[in-house]
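Bench log. Compound arrived from synthesis this morning; before running ITC I wanted a structural hypothesis for how KG4 sits in the protein. Inputs:
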Amino acid sequence: MAVTILAVESSCDDTSVAVISDGEVLSNLIANQAVHIAYGGVVPELASRAHQANIVPVTHEALKQAAISPEDIDAVAFTRGPGLLGSLLVGTSFAKGFALGLNIPLIEVNHLQAHVLAHFIKEPGKEKKMPQFPFLCLLVSGGHTRIIILKNHLEMETIGNTIDDAAGEAFDKCGKIMGLPYPAGPVIDKLASQGNKNAFTFAKPRVNGLDFSFSGLKTSFLYFLRDRIKNDPAFVENNLADLCASLQNVIINILVSKVVKASKLTGITEVGIAGGVSANSGLRLAMLHEASKENWNLFVPEFRFTTDNAAMIGITGYYKYIKGEFTSQSVAPLARY
Ligand code: KG4
Ligand code: ZN
C-alpha cells in the first residue's frame, strides 16, 4: 500500500500544500502573497492573515490535482518551524485539525531539513538520481545560510552558519537599496546576466572556519552607492546591470569558497545546494564549475523545489512516517526550531 502524505508549509509568505505518495509528488500548490511587495519585505501580520485566507482553497486544489480524496491520506505533515510565528500557527492549526478530523497521524517537520530533503523528491515518470550519504549541502535562503552534513534522511549536522544576515537577505536588502522590488534575489539574477561581474569590487568578509557573514557587505554596498550618487545622481540606474552582476559575484564567491573548504575538510564529495538562493543561475554555474574541478557529484534541485514549497515538507514527512516519528496534537509551532 502506498503511503500518501498531505503536506502544509506556511513558515513565511508562501502558502503551500502538496500531496506526496511514496516519495513521489502528486501535487504541489503554492499561493504567493503579493501583499508584501508594496512594503519591500514580508509584514508578519499580513502574512498570517493571507495564510488564513489561502490555506483552505490551496488544500482543496492540491487534493483535486492529485486526484485523491481526504480518506486516501495516511498522515498530515506540517512545518513546525523555524519561521514567523503567526504564519506557522495557521499551518500548524490547520494540519492538526485535518489530522484530528480524519483520525490520522500528524508529523512535524523542520523547515531547514525539508529544504535539504528536497533533493529526494521524486516526480512521476522521471528518473531520479539521489545523493548518497554523507551528503554535504549548502542551504541558502532568505532566512538561513548554512553548510549541512546530511548523515541519513533524518539526521543532519550544521557545520557552518551565518553569524548575521542570510545570503538571501543580502540579495534582498542590497536590492532594496538599489530600489528593486521585494524579493530582489530573482531580479538581481536576471539583471546580472546583462552586466559585467568585474565592474565593481566589494570586499569579502573575513570569517573563521565555515561560517558566513553578510551584514558588512550590505553596509559597504550602501556606503559605496552613497559616495557614487553624490557625484552622479543617476549612478544606480546607469550602472544597474553591472552593480547586480558585481554584487551577485561577491555573494557567490563567499558561498562557493566555503563549500570548497567544507568538502576538503570533511572529504565529502556528494555535494548539493538548496533553498531559495539555490535558484540563482550564477551560483548554479559556479557550483558546476567547482564540481568538475573538485570531482564532486553535484546535486542542484529543480527550480520549483528551491523556494518554499510543501513538496519538501511532504518528502520529509514521508521519511518520518516510515520511521514512525509522529507528533502529538498538543504540538505548538516554534519560531526557532
Ligand atoms: O527558501 P526561500 O523561498 O524562503 C526562505 O526560507 O527564506 O528563499 C527566499 C529567498 C529570498 O531572499 C529571495 O530573494 C531568494 O531566496 N531568491 C534568489 C533567487 N530566487 C529566490 N536569490 C538569488 N537569485 C535567485 N534567482
Ligand atoms: Zn525556506
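What the model suggests: The mean pLDDT is 96. Residues 12, 141-143, 168, 171-172, 183-186, 189, 275-277, 279-280, 307-308 surround KG4 (ligand 1) (CB under 6 Å).
ITC booked for Thursday regardless.
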